[in-house]
Amino acid sequence: MFTGLSAFPLTPLRDDVIDLAAFEGLVARLVEAKVDSVTALGSTGSYAYLDRSERRQVTEAAIAAAGPVPVIVGIGALRTSQVRALAEDAQDAGAAGVLLAPLTYQKHTEDDVFGLYEDVTADLSVPLVVYDNPGTTHFTFSDELYGRIAELPNVASIKIPAIPADPASAAARVDAIRARVPAQVTIGISGDSAAQTGLSAGCDVWYSVIGGTLPQLATAIARPALAGDVDAARAASNRHQPLWDAFAKHGSLRVTAAIAEHLGLVTRSSLPRPILGLSTEERLDVAKLVTDLGLQN
Amino acid sequence: MFTGLSAFPLTPLRDDVIDLAAFEGLVARLVEAKVDSVTALGSTGSYAYLDRSERRQVTEAAIAAAGPVPVIVGIGALRTSQVRALAEDAQDAGAAGVLLAPLTYQKHTEDDVFGLYEDVTADLSVPLVVYDNPGTTHFTFSDELYGRIAELPNVASIKIPAIPADPASAAARVDAIRARVPAQVTIGISGDSAAQTGLSAGCDVWYSVIGGTLPQLATAIARPALAGDVDAARAASNRHQPLWDAFAKHGSLRVTAAIAEHLGLVTRSSLPRPILGLSTEERLDVAKLVTDLGLQN
Question: What GO molecular function annotation could you give as one example from this UniProt entry (chains A, B) (predicted)?
């Protein structure tokens, strides 16, 4: 489950209420594209903006719509007791695994973060993905902390941020993490523009933003990369450079939401306010990018 | 209300439940010390870690315990609709004002933040303090954005982060902000070590962490500073340099909680997990600091 392609669907809103029908439609596309797992309520799924009952709804809908595909559910929250309650909800609903980022308001120490994972994994009955996303959490894991946390019970995977673009440096980076964590703990790349490099450098799984909305695009990169065909994977990734450039400029969430809105997969203004979607002008650029790259197919 | 000394009490927990009796005790000390206002559920009051019903409890307790002293209530949350609900709760409970920081998970644009304040102030019936705390929100206001937001209805004050230590540079900084915002909008300094400099440089109010736990210490700095006696204010602030050094090292929240725990104002482990309190060794340093500076009196 913690290998291959894990696709992160958006959680679309409509007038500040979760649009469950649109969400189920997104998950159905992922099943059809044969992704290896669905991660609901990741950063792309706006988990941090949703309350407990909304998160329960999304979890249940994801599991129902995913059928045989395993569903991992994001359980991040600022307070440990809130995370534990969300873990319980996810387990009760039938999640195959959970994903946990160390959200911060006050700056965390390494001991705070270790304590969070220690407290949460102690109660778990499903595997956990450690979610290292410094762009949103403003916490930076050391490799030593990866190692300490990876030894905790139920830790199954670590989702790491983007790695160096140069293949040799990328491989060295993945090897350095690999040396710190038990063999059964998989290493997953995130940052879609770095996915091919990460998978070719030895990552076991791609935790993918764009894969949650355009799974065909993601499989076109992931399948050759996982099969060891570096050249084909690189060509597939490089062909989407304008998309990665847009992600770098506006953030992957806003661009992915604009694509989903443009394609009619979700309705306009699908992101939780105060996050505004792209401007009208920026949307025209996204629409052109969709046409140029053939993303509508 | 948005001038003088605004004191930010801790929201102490006890086994992950709000210790209302201890909280009321903290607020009673502030009333006795004649602070100008109490700001409940600021960063020091751990607002971001508490759910809506907990925040309602704390708001009601603060207003009851503060008697004639006006209470400002923090209403920050990640989603605009959550902020609006918290604003309504605060108003219903009788808050004299509200305090709003632009919490982030996804990186905010200036338009997102302006939109947040626009949406929230449109419904308000009490004044609002704009809370600029880049250390926790990871959002940086431009002076131009201060100006745009300060023109919105009900905006009464801006809580700014620490300013340059040099008095001339500090005065230039406060003047630059002052030139951007309407005359009736007060400017408040935060970062306790910068309070004397800020007040002497023309800030109207000190939004004080330590003032919420040790109000006598804060008034000893604020009163001369507000009366224009720069030398006396500076001497009072400089005398507490070891405290500011501890704030810089461990963060003001952890140090203030350790002081309150040491003095028996709250019970041990009063912070919301995953935030661990100071270590045993660090607590010994804090205890020594309390004795050396006479903070127990």
Answer: 4-hydroxy-tetrahydrodipicolinate synthase activity
Q: Looking at the domain assignment, is residue A98 inside a domain?
A: yes
Residue A133 token pair: 């996303």
What separation in angstroms does the CA of B87 have from each of B59, B92, B94, B98, B123? 11, 9, 11, 7, 9
The yes-or-no answer on residue B159 being catalytic is yes
Q: How many A×B Cβ pairs under 8 Å? A: 88
Q: Which of B75, B131, B275, B281 to mutate to test the interface with A (most CBs of A within 10 A)?
A: B275
Q: Do the domain assignments include residue B204?
A: yes
Q: What is the pLDDT along chain B (297 residues), one digit of tens a residue?
A: 899 999 999 999 999 999 999 999 999 999 999 999 999 999 999 999 999 999 999 999 999 999 999 999 999 999 999 999 999 999 999 999 999 999 999 999 999 999 999 999 998 999 999 999 999 999 999 999 999 999 999 999 999 998 999 999 999 999 999 999 999 999 999 999 999 999 999 999 999 999 999 999 999 999 999 999 999 999 999 999 999 999 999 999 999 999 999 999 999 999 999 999 999 999 999 999 999 999 987
Q: Is residue A124 part of a domain?
A: yes
Based on the residue annotation, tell me whether B49 is a catalytic residue of this protein.
no
User: Residue B52 sits in which domain range?
Assistant: 4-227
Specify if B208 maps to a domain: yes
A59 is in an annotated binding site: no
Cβ neighbors of A281 (< 8 A, separation 6 or more) are none
Instruction: Judge whether A254 and A278 are in contact, CB under 8 Å.
Output: yes
Nearest CA-CA distance, residue A112 and chain B, Å:
5
CATH number at residue B19: 3.20.20.70
Number of domains forming the structure of chain A: 1
DSSP string, B20-73: HHHHHHHHHHHHHTT-SEEEETSGGGTGGGS-HHHHHHHHHHHHHHHTTS-EEE
Residues of chain B numbered 130-159 and touching chain A (CB < 8 Å): 135-136, 138
Contact assignment for B78 to A48 by CB distance below 8 Å: yes
Query: Is B78's Cβ below 8 Å from some Cβ in A?
Result: yes
